[in-house]
Amino acid sequence: MQRSAHFLIKTLPLVRIQWHNPQPNWISDDYVGVNLHIYSVDLSNSEILMNQLNSTLKRTGTLFVLYCITASVVYLAFTTNYIAYDSLTGLRVGIFIILLPIIIKYVIQLVTLPFYSFVERRRSINTTDLKVSSTPTVSVLVPAWNEEVGIIKTLESVIASDYPNFEVIVINDGSTDNTHQLVNRFIKQFVKSSNSKTTIRYLQLPNGGKAKALNQGLKLSKSDFIMTLDADSLMDKDTLSKMVQRFTDEKVAAVAGNVIIGNRNKPIELLQQLEYLYGFFFKRADSTFNSVYIVGGAAAAYRRSILNEVGGFDEALITEDIEMSTRLLNLGYKTRYAADAIVYTEGPSDWKSLFNQRLRWKYGRLLTFIKHRKLFFSLRKHHSPYLSMLLLPVAMYAELTLLLEGFLLTIFYGYTIIANDYMPLLFVILFINTIITIQVIFDARSQFHSNLILIAPVAWLLFYVIDVVEFQALYRSIKRLWNKQDLQWQKWQRVGLIQSASTSEPLCVEELTNPDVLIPR
Fold first, then answer.
1. CB-CB contact of 477 with 366 (8 Å)
2. Which of 53, 82, 384, 480 is the most buried (most CB within 10 A)?
3. What are phi and psi of 248, to 5 degrees?
4. Helices 44-79 and 459-483 meet at what angle, rounded to 10?
5. How far apart are CA 167 and CA 38, in angstroms?
6. What is the pLDDT of residues 211-233, one digit of tens each?
7. 95: buried, middle or exposed (CB in 10 Å: 19+, 13-18, 0-12)?
């Protein structure tokens, strides 16, 4: 794998070149002295090497333990004899009934998934929106609050787009770091050195929240379509083109891009990479029914006329992106997913930041459900039955089962051990392993996700970790709702992403900007 190659190269003994004599006299008698003076070993590289080795050993050790647990289940499933207990049969059936709505949803999505590509091709052929076929104008909105670490790389990825007709609008929402200085300098250099027709506009506002920043950018735009991009993200050259192509008729109001976790050095980052791949893949089924109810702001495209018609983003909700896509569906518009429109984003690299991020998402989604509660089980003609009768009710039901998950798992594993009935658990393991393998193979960035093939057999255990993160977010959200507490635009310590032109892989900025680390280009 490419990441393995990177690791092997980075763990070679590293030497930092230090030039102490800019004009050495190579012919003089002190030639040897100059040679020794030019090259010196920076001992800090030994520390970097050891940190990398320690991190790899920890990951390998954890993976070994998870594989042992999985292998134990496989062994027990084929070597132990099932013991029938009439008194426990009811428990088994009860757990199945409780999970039945979620199972039905997954079955419908899995049956629908193979039709995604066919439906997309048919939509493209039968497009009724003439604007899409004539490269309509697009405004890329980049809201930023204290994004000095990654915003320049974000802007560089945007202006490198192969789309011929777009502008960039950067909205600085009262940043207190060096975001303003960096953006100003970047725009000046871009105007001075670039022959591109792309224009970059810059708004500096007092801090008012992401939704307000986006609305200000929306007012400035005169384009046919709007794309929002987080200031810690990188997009591929063809992302804009792929997003615009999905607006095949005038009822399509929003399109979600395929967001990929770009930083994957730590176990917590690999966990998010797996989670994003697994979750976004099922958006293909939602898109087939024109019902993607989460169009995340990290990679979202909108028809500007419809955004203006509905009054812009809701500045009262912390998750303005989820609320907007749900509102559009409530009004009878269509939302879709572009699996080949790739955006890399930076996931939290520590547990506290991840917990807080998921709190914001969970809290905002619950508020959105409350605001648009009439959409649940709606029989109105302009509402998709897939959305109102299946997707949203099961999403809410899943939150309720999450509260009971500890209790249900205790019963399930207790029954499994007492009755020696390991086959259902083995089926779950094989099912998840198969789904993840298929997702990796058919994803638009299959090579990038190839590292997850090794994790797939133990993914069933990793999903329990994700459930713990989601449970704390749900508990804290309910507590905030009860106490009527609000949330603000959150911030965590970022490292930043940078994209390698040779591999199209996003790498940590720290890896490429640290003078003590040598990476081949």
1. yes
2. 384
3. -80, -15
4. 100
5. 47
6. 999 999 999 999 999 999 999 99
7. middle
Among the listed residues 87, 18, 39, 73, the one whose alpha carbon sits nearest the alpha carbon of residue 457: 73
Q: What is the DSSP string of 91-134?
A: HHHHHHHHHHHHHHHHHHHHHHGGGHHHHHHHHHHT---TTGGG
- Could you give phi then psi for residue 493, rounded to 5 degrees? -70, 120
Kindly state the helix (H) or strand (E) to which residue 208 belongs, with its residue range.
none
Q: Which of 205, 211, 394, 226 is nearest to 319 (CA)?
A: 211
The DSSP-derived string for 403-432 is: HTHHHHHHHHHHHHHHHT--HHHHHHHHHH
- DSSP category for residue 39: B
If you average pLDDT over residues 363-369, what whole number do you get? 96
pLDDT of residue 130 exceeding 60, the answer is yes
Q: Which residues is 140 bridged to in the sheet?
A: 168, 227
Question: Please, which pLDDT band fits residue 492 given cuts at 50, 70 and 90?
Answer: low
Terminal-residue alpha carbon distance, the chain: 17
90 CB-near residues (< 8 Å, 6+ apart): none
What confidence tier does 199 reach under pLDDT thresholds 50, 70, 90? very high
β-bridge partners, 167: 139, 199
Pairing between strand 225-229 and 199-205? Answer: unpaired
Q: Which one, of 341, 311, 358, 336, lies nearest residue 255 by Cα?
A: 336
Which pair of structure tokens corresponds to residue 285? 């089924």
pLDDT at 26 over 50: no
Q: Tell me the mean pLDDT in the region 59-77.
A: 92
At 134 the pLDDT is 77
Q: What is the pLDDT of residue 57?
A: 59
CB environment 476-499: b (16+ within 10 A), e (fewer)? bbeebeeeeeebebeeeebbbbbb
Please give the biggest Cα pair distance in the chain: 95
Listed in order, strand segments (DSSP E) in 145-205 are 166-173, 199-205
Q: What pLDDT score was predicted for residue 486?
A: 81
Q: What is the pLDDT of residues 320-361, one digit of tens each?
A: 999 999 999 999 999 999 999 999 999 999 999 999 999 999
3-state secondary structure of 34: helix
What's the rounded Cα separation, in Å, for the pair 37 and 115? 66
d(CA 327, CA 293) in angstroms, rounded, equals 9
Q: What H or E segment, with its residue span, contains residue 310?
A: none
User: Quick one: pLDDT band at residue 10, thresholds 50, 70, 90?
Assistant: very low
- By CB atoms closer than 10 A (0-12, 13-18, 19+), residue 96 is exposed
pLDDT of residue 220: 95
Range from 43-52, 75-84, 127-136 carrying the lowest mean pLDDT: 43-52
Q: Which residue has the tokens 């658990």?
A: 425
